[in-house]
Design a protein that fits this description.
Length: 211
């Protein structure tokens, strides 16, 4: 199945990306690109190569391909707490286009985890692609993706080929900085050595700690 400008499927949209707006912000800037990983990829390209700037979303010069079979798993960490609104996918052409996408919020799963059939946070049926297809936006259930530090995308199958191809994966929503654990420090007005128990192993000085 291909998708054209006349498509009226309510499960995705072809609306252009807005130039600004926190609620609809494109989240490329808070993806930790160095830590993005792909499993069952043929490794001809880096896993993060399909997470591109908005201007590069329809570029087909670079893509990921599955290796042993049609399944492909992409693990994406964020550098902020993300409130996800939608994912954007541009799959390969014809039968190489991924079909079923399982999303797992705040999970960094591998295939061993997937074999245990964990319940996806959301499952999306992706639209087939042709040679002129553009990336398609798929809304997610915002309440289930309200504070994501990372997300796993599991492309479970495709439209019939032995290999799944992925040109682009993107994310839209809003974000807030990750909260650091508070540091609690207690100060003493006047330190009295008699008030403190000696830590075992420190009789010969601090240089012997841990030895």
């Amino acid at each position: 199945m291909t998708c054209s400008d006349s498509c009226s499927d309510p499960n995705h949209t072809h609306d252009p990306h807005p130039d600004s707006g926190v609620d609809n912000g494109y989240l490329y800037g808070v993806v930790d690109l160095e830590k993005v990983t792909a499993l069952n990829s043929d490794e001809s390209e880096r896993a993060s190569s399909v997470i591109k700037t908005w201007e590069e979303r329809n570029d087909v010069a670079v893509s990921l391909h599955s290796d042993a079979d049609e399944q492909l798993l992409l693990r994406v960490p964020f550098t902020a707490a993300v409130k996800l609104k939608s994912v954007l996918i541009k799959g390969g052409t014809a039968e190489k286009c991924p079909r079923t996408l399982h999303l797992y919020a705040n999970q960094s799963y591998d295939f061993a985890d997937i074999e245990n059939e964990p319940t996806p946070t959301q499952t999306i049926e992706l639209v087939g692609n042709d040679s002129t297809g553009e990336c398609i936006e798929y809304p997610v259930k915002i309440a289930k993706f309200s504070s994501c530090s990372h997300i796993t995308l599991f492309f479970a199958d495709n439209y019939g080929d032995d290999v799944t191809q992925l040109f682009f994966a993107g994310f839209k929503g809003s974000w807030t900085p990750l909260k650091a654990d508070p540091v609690i420090t207690t100060y003493e007005a006047f330190a009295n050595p008699a008030d403190h128990n000696k830590i075992a192993g420190t009789e010969r000085g601090m240089s012997n700690l841990g030895s």
